[in-house]
Amino acid sequence: DIQMTQSPSSLSASVGDRVTITCRASQGIRNDLDWYQQKPGKAPKRLIYVASSLQSGVPSRFSGSGSGTEFTLTISSLQPEDFATYYCLQHSSYPWTFGQGTKVEIK
Amino acid sequence: QVQLVESGGGVVQPGMSLRLSCAASEFTFSSYAMHWVRQAPGKGLEWVAAISYDGNRQYYTDSVKGRFTISRDNSKNTLYLQMNSLTAEDTAMFYCARDRVDQTFDYWGQGTLVTVSS
């Protein structure tokens, strides 16, 4: 099974900060990786698919990069509505696996 | 607008069974693979099971193999998850989500809560 190691598990940041979250796969997954945002009590929302494609309707301050085993989600200028938990998901092979999540909190 | 509506959750005793449903609308259900994802209280997301668009292939995470069965009825636009031999570790919000090339998990349901407790 492919393990996804996501870091950091949490971070504190201020509005306007640049934030980077990383996911590492235990083996190569090409670009079969998505990023999701989840707010308390809500279903996850897809932000980025196939590593770097921006989901329609998602602000351009969100971007994704990477291929193979290392991937990043970047928020270029953190906004108040971006405080949430973020997850990566590999869908290269079954069983699909999520990263452990990164909780982005207000500094 | 694409809709996925889960139902069937509730409180059950350990060892008992439960069947979840996910009703799909406003898209061609029979063209999409479908998945179940769960989230234990205060924990992260866990992929649980998937079924191909035609129902011929099923995939499971190890912890539910032999206990859970994913199925679908394309004539009713409905996805199911039969859960047997439930334990406290199965307590979670269960979400369904659709999947096709470049549309992996672009829509999710609101979730249905399963609580396993004596």
Describe the structure.
The complex is a heterodimer of chains A (107) and B (118). With 107 residues, chain A is mainly beta. In chain A, strands 2, 4, 5, 6, 9, 10 and 11 form a seven-stranded mixed β-sheet that branches. With 118 residues, chain B is mainly beta. Chain B has no helices and ten strands. A six-stranded mixed β-sheet of chain B has the order 2-10-9-4-5-6, with no helix packed on it. Chain B has a four-stranded antiparallel β-sheet with strand order 1-3-8-7, with no helix packed on it. Chain B is globular and about 40 Å long. The termini of chain B are far apart. The interface between A and B is medium-sized, with 23 and 20 residues.
Protein traits:
heterodimer, A: 107 residues, mainly beta, seven-stranded mixed beta sheet, four-stranded antiparallel beta sheet, 11 strands, 50% strand, globular, B: 118 residues, six-stranded mixed beta sheet, 0% helix
Protein topology:
The complex is a heterodimer of chains A (107) and B (118).
Chain A: E1 4-7, E2 10-13, E3 19-25, E4 33-38, E5 45-49, E6 53-54, E7 62-67, E8 70-75, E9 85-90, E10 97-98, E11 102-106
Parallel strand pairs in A: 2-11
Antiparallel strand pairs in A: 1-3, 3-8, 4-5, 4-9, 5-6, 7-8, 9-10, 9-11
Chain B: E1 3-7, E2 10-12, E3 18-25, E4 33-39, E5 45-51, E6 58-60, E7 68-73, E8 78-83, E9 92-99, E10 112-116
Parallel strand pairs in B: 2-10
Antiparallel strand pairs in B: 1-3, 3-8, 4-5, 4-9, 5-6, 7-8, 9-10
Helix coverage percent of residues of chain B? under 10%
Backbone structural class of chain B: mainly beta
Q: Low-confidence parts of chain A, pLDDT < 50 over ≥5 residues? A: none
Largest interface: A-B, 23 and 20 residues
Strand content of chain A: over 45%
Give the biggest sheet of chain B: 6 strands, mixed
SSE order of chain A, one letter for each helix or strand: EEEEEEEEEEE
